[in-house]
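yo, Alpha/beta fold hydrolase is done. seq:
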Amino acid sequence: MASVDINGITLTYESSGDPQGPAVLLNMGLALQLISWPREFVDGLVQRGYHVIRYDNRDAGLSSHFDHLGVPNLWLAYMRHLFGWPQQAPYTLNDMAGDALGLLDALGVAAAHIVGVSMGGMVAQIMAARYPGRTLSLTSIMSSSGRPGLPGPSPAARRILLRRTPSAHHRGRVVEQMVDTFRTIGSPGFPMPDDLLRQMAGEAVARNVNGNGVVRQLVAIAASGDRSALLREIACPALVIHGDADPLVPCACGIDTARQIPGARLEVIQGMGHDMPPALVGRLLALLDQHLRGKMAG
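structure:
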């Protein structure tokens, strides 16, 4: 892994595959790190000839943390979001999109296929709309337009979203919380074995824990608001993938995202929740490869 200094911060990234191949920038979701992309998914893209770039978002993994900006009141931010009141956030998704663009600049990548999951899908949407010359295509997975009136998380998923992460000093508790999160929001049609969930959580915790960063990222999402008008400006080929069993970002959010983007292709996967389980990696790769090569069926 390597790092670059951009926009006054440090981003940690990993580049895989042929640098001369088409670039694919992978944007990860809330609180997750670049290692959260399934290895089989990354390797599958590399084997198909793509230059794959993963990175840790600001306030996650080994990229810059923003502890100097304090910790917002999460419940207050949530209530402001529910009532549509203005938010004061340490940073927004627009800033995070600027980070991703700066990474492409630092790596000398003129344009890339932009792929994002959940919060990363929101960042990818902003990139596609605001930096059309740098975006070859957009793939928004298990994400949302942020339009008011869309359904929110299930009660169990909301509980997961709003609870605080234990201190990094209590690694065992952090691992247990992550396993509980994976179980709660995962794909009911493609459940992951318990030992795999614990392995994933253990690797993530061993690499980095930043509970306060999760809060700041959540508030960034809330403060960034409705992207509907922005999505209607997207002109590149767009693919929206969503699971019909997603308890965190309900499928209606993915359907709405596809409706807002002119000409977007929507793929709803039965039994998929808010994760990328091993059993779905092959299907996701096939969809993505067809999309990136401009070969999606009409």
